[in-house]
Amino acid sequence: MFPKGEMFxxxxxxxxxxxxxxxxxxxxxxVYGIKSMTxxxxxxxxxxxxxxxxxxxxxxxxxxxxxxxxxxxEEQHGVCQVVEPKGNAIDQLMELTAFVxxxxxxxxxxxxxxxxxxxxxxxxxxxQHKEHFIYETIKTNLExxxxxxxxxxxxxxxxxxxxxxxxxxxVLNPIESGFMDPGYEASExxxxxxxxxxxxxxxxxxxxxxxxxxxxxxx
Length: 219
Prior knowledge:
The chain is mainly alpha-helical and about 220 residues long. It has a domain at about 75-215: Tetracycline Repressor, domain 2, CATH 1.10.357. Helices cover about 70% and strands about 0% of the residues. It has 10 helices and no strands. Helix 6 packs across helix 7. The radius of gyration is 20 Å and the shape is elongated. The protein starts with 17 loop residues before the first helix and ends with a helix.
């Protein structure tokens, strides 16, 4: 399952900082999943002793929680960069979709399952991120879309944003979500979800603009 050598052979323990450890552990979890990576294997892949590893975290749960916190911070920063530049609401939503899909494609399919089943505190942190940051991001986009004249002016941003969160839960909740059973990749489910979402909120002008965007990008 794992390569014989160290994944990070030049990772010298004496120069290690906590942020380095978290970033490298995050890379391992993304590639191999979480449950399969024991603390022994993590230390081996990082080229450090388990004693050194335990100088930074007391157990695997703590390591996972630090990784999740780091990834949430990175995602929030990335999303802000995507939605802040010039462009209308549909442009921003499509950029957001591409950003999320790219991250999902890099991630081992068991990661979300492992978090929900074995690391519930970290899973709760993700749920809180979804219910606050993602909710506010989508609600703001909905309000902008109405102002841009691209979304229906009779939609309720709060309600629609909550609908969106329920769809996100379909992607992030692999235990309860039936969409995962047929073997669909999370990135594919997310892309179809976003198409469904945009077409549902766009008015005629927005749908025409969306068609042009799809045509221009060969989507």
